[in-house]
């Protein structure tokens, strides 16, 4: 209830500080794809706290930051000339990418009815389907948890508005065969959207020759989230299009505002997270992110090694900083780890213990987690010989 008589600032802040203690400190969190924002992102965010990109004429500085940020994200995504905007995260980007694809298909005289996604697609695509009134077709995965291109192709028909590839799947950290999907998109003349919400700030810094971005000519749109491995403040995602006409399809007239068209899903939207992402990308640069990703990968491999010493194998050899372990009774193990203060999660199919090794992870935490995992497995009687 809103109080009749207002309270002093200090007393309100005291109440909030106490409440804040309930929030989880990231130290023991291995379940999240977010992390502590980089301090420079926080400073930039605070500086641009008042800005509203929903009324860009009032906030030209934020408009310029967004333009530069899209340019930087585009270069990360292998496309120098991309068009796009800063979203609230992967969910908004996925919704808008498919909306743009539907719009384009209709403009070309088609009657789009479905979108084909890998079975590993993030649950945001369920929202996409229900909001846009289209059918979601799910293509099968191979044993490495990558989408099976044959299965994908078998689901495409004349009603297909778009196909989706995932560069960094939520559950297994797998990368779909984007190059082959790109071929498929070109052959069928359909929109290919690549969801790199998580992988966009990881894959460019791995030693891999895998092609995953706009260098593949069949890709029409991509999303990359600065608020995940980009170490920026929440909520910050991005939607990138190869062609301006796709972005145009999202536009609505905004007659009484300082700009006459708006392309975002939300109306009022902060410029603060764009400033945060811009600041951290400028500050870290490619080398800084390479160091961060390198350390996450070192710890991921260390944890995988520790698990192997316990006789536990990963479901797939980790390509990114997501480790999925084939532990017996994963739900029991997750609960037991929780009782020891560790936040972990479980994959759906197959059920594995899932650990995301984010930039807040330390070697100390990883080794303690490994020790606790060993104890938990012994206590549950699923491993006697440790
Ligand atoms: N695409 C992929 C590949 C994702 O992994 C996610 C989110 C999204 C899209 C949607 O992004 P937004 O949540 O930013 O809209 N993946 C994480 C997940 O669902 C999000 C997350 C992050 C969950 C931090 C928990 C958490 O503590 O697991």
Short description:
With 386 residues, the chain is of the alpha/beta class. The chain is built from 11 helices and 12 strands.
Structure description:
The protein is α/β, with parallel strands linked by helices. The protein has two domains: 9-36 and 285-379, Aspartate Aminotransferase, domain 1 (Alpha-Beta Complex); 39-281, Aspartate Aminotransferase, domain 2 (3-Layer(aba) Sandwich), CATH 3.40.640.10. It has eleven helices and twelve strands. The chain has helices at 9-20, 39-47, 60-76, 90-107, 124-132, 149-155, 178-188, 244-248, 272-309, 330-339, 363-379; strands at 83-87, 114-118, 135-139, 160-166, 191-195, 219-223, 237-241, 252-253, 261-262, 322-325, 345-346, 353-356. The protein has a seven-stranded mixed beta sheet with strand order 1-7-6-5-4-2-3, sandwiched between helices. Strands 10-12-11 form a three-stranded antiparallel beta sheet. Strands 8-9 form a two-stranded antiparallel ribbon. A hairpin with a 6-residue loop joins strand 11 and strand 12. Helix 9 crosses helix 11. The structure holds ligand 0PR. Ligand 0PR binds at residues 32-34, 89-91, 94, 122, 124, 166, 168, 170, 195, 197-198, 225, 237.
Topology:
Blueprint: H1 9-20, H2 39-47, H3 60-76, E1 83-87, H4 90-107, E2 114-118, H5 124-132, E3 135-139, H6 149-155, E4 160-166, H7 178-188, E5 191-195, E6 219-223, E7 237-241, H8 244-248, E8 252-253, E9 261-262, H9 272-309, E10 322-325, H10 330-339, E11 345-346, E12 353-356, H11 363-379
Parallel strand pairs: 2-3, 2-4, 4-5, 5-6
Antiparallel strand pairs: 1-7, 6-7, 8-9, 10-12, 11-12
